[in-house]
Amino acid sequence: MEKQAVNIVHPDLASSGGILETKRIGDLAQENGIAMAMHMAGSPISALANVHCAAATENFLVLENHSVDHPQWNQLVTGLPTPLIQDGYVQVPEKPGLGFDDVNEEVARQYLNPRNPVYFDQPTDEWDKDWSWDRLWS
Length: 138
Fold this sequence. Notes:
Elements: E1 8-9, H1 18-31, E2 35-38, H2 44-55, E3 60-63, E4 77-78, E5 102-103, H3 105-109
Parallel strand pairs: 1-2, 2-3
Antiparallel strand pairs: 4-5
């Protein structure tokens, strides 16, 4: 970006480090006169995280999205307008958190991997002894 080797950055928030890291990517791009188009091909939860990041980033250009072609995409969470994307736009929710009420477990369970049908209510004891010590940004 500092060498002007790109015209537009295109991070995917779900794989570029989350909301904060994607915001930092956008801010660095802005400092160098580069726009940010965001890639998003995930759930409505991921879409809302992207929407919040985009709203907080001055050089945001567009949020790429493919997921709404799935007929039950909007029903994976509750408490959102239906459809979430209206006339090409998403309103930034004003509710706490990302802006949805809850995960629609009945719909979500329909899309579990049949080879490994694990849902979020399974124990995660293997993580009890791992600690994060990320001092890169703090």
